[in-house]
Design goal:
Blueprint: H1 8-28, E1 31-32, E2 39-40, H2 52-62, H3 64-69, H4 79-91, H5 99-103, E3 112-114, E4 119-121, H6 122-131, E5 137-139, E6 144-146, H7 149-158, E7 164-166, H8 175-184, E8 190-192, H9 204-207, E9 214-216, H10 224-230, E10 241-243, H11 251-255, E11 264-266, H12 276-279, E12 286-288
Parallel strand pairs: 3-5, 4-6, 5-7, 7-8, 8-9, 9-10, 10-11, 11-12
Antiparallel strand pairs: 1-2
Length: 291
């Protein structure tokens, strides 16, 4: 099967023709009443056409692969529309399975990007770095990881406005990449690296300088030493939501936490022999653990 992509003028002409035909048919459906010779509407209910925005939006989302196939480097449309298409593909279509499709939609106005369900390659990560310098929130979690450490280094080293990142279950992320992320993202306040097994206590030396409020390091290789490094650091005193479930954490590590700010704590699967430190946490609203 062959496809022919309409030019912008052809597409607009087709839309105008469609709407003119619709309203002409609507006018012809009017008839005069035999009794009063007055113009009245037909009793037949006429379905309203879809809004022009929806028509254009659906057309583009259905033909993304064709734009990629013919080598388009960018779609000439408002950035707001591009951002809506990205959101639609991820939430409705289950993500991008072609890394070239995303490249034509990325733009400098994008502040948050969710790649859940998408195939994420080095090409995608480099395109994000080049086209989205103002990105603040990035979700890689549950994506099809096809990138390398080189792609991650570029990503973590150049997104200076990043505030939140979620990249669960990524074996490539280790302490050196956490260090690059912490050093280059001064506004980082949410870090979700659940099940990144190569993240260990060494990461604490770099994270302690950031005012991180939400930290998920469950199923990683950290231990009590991690909290001893954080202690009264900017990170340690800023934590609101902390999840270290199934890590080598004991009561000794819990005792050095800054409990005044902490509200949510996940310690499921940790080897705790007493909970005296939790008893003094006046602001703690939720604790998840196993007995």
């Amino acid at each position: 099967m062959t496809y022919s992509l309409l030019t912008l003028h052809e597409f607009l002409a087709l839309l105008i023709k469609t709407f003119v035909e619709y309203y002409l048919n609507s006018f012809l459906s009017l008839r005069f009443s035999n009794s009063s010779e007055c113009l009245i509407m037909s009793s037949t209910v006429i379905a309203q056409p879809p809004p022009l925005y929806n028509t254009c939006f659906n057309f583009v989302t259905q033909h993304l692969k064709q734009y990629t196939h013919i080598g388009c480097t960018g779609l000439k449309m408002p950035s707001l529309i591009k951002n809506s298409i990205i959101d639609y593909v991820v939430k409705v279509q289950g993500g991008f399975d072609d890394d070239g499709q995303l490249a034509v939609l990325l733009n400098p106005t994008l502040c948050q990007l969710n790649l859940t369900g998408s195939t994420i390659t080095d090409r995608v990560l480099l395109a994000v770095v080049e086209k989205c310098p103002n990105l603040k929130r990035l979700t890689l979690t549950k994506g099809n990881y096809r990138f390398s450490r080189k792609g991650l280094k570029a990503l973590f080293g150049r997104l200076h406005h990043l505030e939140e990142i979620s990249a669960k279950n990524c074996a490539l992320i280790d302490d050196s990449l956490v260090a690059k992320l912490a050093l280059n993202c001064p506004n980082l306040h949410l870090l979700d690296l659940e099940a990144c097994a190569n993240v260990s206590n060494c990461s604490a030396e770099f994270l302690k300088h950031r005012r991180i409020t939400h930290l998920n390091l469950s199923h990683t290789s950290i231990s009590d030493e991690f909290f001893k490094v954080l202690a009264d650091s900017p990170c340690g005193t800023s934590l609101i939501d902390l999840n270290v479930s199934y890590c080598n954490i004991t009561s000794a590590g819990m005792e050095v936490l800054h409990w005044k700010s902490l509200k949510y704590l996940g310690i499921d699967g940790c080897d705790l022999d007493d909970f005296d430190c939790i008893d003094v946490a006046k602001n703690l609203a939720f604790v998840h653990w196993t007995i």
